[in-house]
Amino acid sequence: MKPATLEEIYRSANEKTVATWAKNSGIGKVKEGHYYDPVKLALATGIQPPLSAAVSRLLDALQQRFQHDPLADILPVRGFHFTFLPLTLPLYDEREPLPEKVAQLAAIWSGYNANTLVIRHLRLVALPNQLLLAGIPESPAVDQRQSFCEQVMQSDWKAELLMRHAGRALPAPFWHSTILRYHADFLPESLRHYFSEHQNRDYGGISGELTLAGVNYNWTTCYPLSG
């Protein structure tokens, strides 16, 4: 995907969210339960890059301003990550042996393991009840992700991959980390205002080595299966 196209996708997502907020002044219905199982592990590929100063300040600001809101699930620093391709839903208990076919997945992944993923021009992207930090990947990341996705689709992991994406684009177009989830239909006015103030800021770039791992929903638990 060309950077200009991805820029437009992010811009369009923000415009759509702002329009949705304009029609819904409150937070709507408070959600019961969790977005994802908070304990069970999923299989995913991605990076846990070092925090840049700009990203560190962003996460600190969110914690300082919104940590006392019980509906705000802010990404802890130790869980900061960017997903390359999520592979399964949270299916596995932490001490549960993985299926034998994980060897097939690891073999496919061996062609990508430890490759460096660079994502630049990070910016805030808003969904109705989430804040994302999204950016533009450097070549050849897009082609590599597409190739890996196609190989998984031809493997014994096709069903799990399709279940994880639940009819959505595969792979998803965004290159992002979800830095805040709000347990209601919509972000409150305070978070909308924060997004409005900071949506045009460039938070720079990050880079890290790709890994295949068993992770919980926000990567605060991460068990590498490669490397």
Which strand-content bin applies to the residues?
15-25%
The unreliable regions are: none
Largest sheet: 5 strands, antiparallel
**Sheet/helix structural class:** alpha+beta
Specify the overall morphology: globular
Query: Number of helix segments?
Result: 6
Total number of strands: 9
What is the mean pLDDT? 95
Supply Rg.
17 Å
Residues in helices, as a percent range = 25-40%
Please list the strands of the largest sheet in the order they lie side by side.
2-6-5-4-7
How would the blueprint of this fold be written?
Layout: H1 3-23, E1 42-47, H2 53-66, E2 72-74, E3 82-86, H3 102-109, E4 116-127, E5 130-137, H4 141-153, H5 158-165, E6 176-182, H6 189-198, E7 206-209, E8 211-215, E9 222-224
Antiparallel strand pairs: 1-3, 1-8, 2-6, 4-5, 4-7, 5-6, 8-9
